[in-house]
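Give me the fold.
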Amino acid sequence: MDKTENNRAWLLVIPVLLVVAFSAIIPLMTVVNFSVQDIFGPGERVWVGTEWFEEVLADTRLHDALWRQFLFSGLVLLIEIPLGVMIALAMPREGWSVSLVLVVLALPLLIPWNVIGTIWIIFTRPDIGLMGNTINRLGLGFDHTASPLDAWVTLMLMEVWHWTPLVALLAYAGLKAIPDAYFQAAQIDGASRWAVFRYIQLPKMRGVLTIAILLRFMDSFLIYAEPFVLTGGGPGNATTFLSIYLVKIAVGQFDLGPAAAFSIIYFLIVLLFSWIFYQVLQNVGRGRA
């Protein structure tokens, strides 16, 4: 007996498509329009083609911001992914402590991004901040507003504190989804703790870790609020990432044409590297399978 298709589900999808079209596609088309035209006002515009793109790509300040961004995102992935997995492995599997640990772990994720920067400004102030003042009392000389190294260390600590819980929660969900039969079989075979992790837990977490890597890469590559509030891109240009540099062009200098071209290049970079990460992780998973 042939099954009839139920197309009523599309009635639930259409509103989502309309929202996405309004909130993403239309603004994107506006940016594309500004990137290829020099717009002076209503009805006053000049076609410039790829002029803004060539100008942006030749900008050495963009090159510097791009390398800073890659360094920051690379450090974020190298620290947060292993640390999140370690936290997930150490979390309890049953009992009342599970709910308590999950709630406490999720607290940093509930704080708005701009508030995160404000918290860490107060926390790391060299005169009254708990962290900054304590380090200075030890004679180490800490000031994230004057030292590029201190600024980077502070940013990394802030980012790891804020977003490692997301990786840990995703990894914990992957661990909880593993059937007990795998662990029972490993126990019977006398597998070591490392063997259980390498051949059972890590492969079974591949899906959630793929999501974690993609989310953390995209978010860290687009980071703006936290470093802007904490350092403003300084000292000097030490923490001027792509997003901060883009805002300086669009808002500070009001160069909408180059800013629009920069936005499209920025979008394509994130899209390209996210696709590369996804393909690599999928190929690694198939190779293990």
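The CA atoms of residues 146 and 155 lie 14 Å apart.
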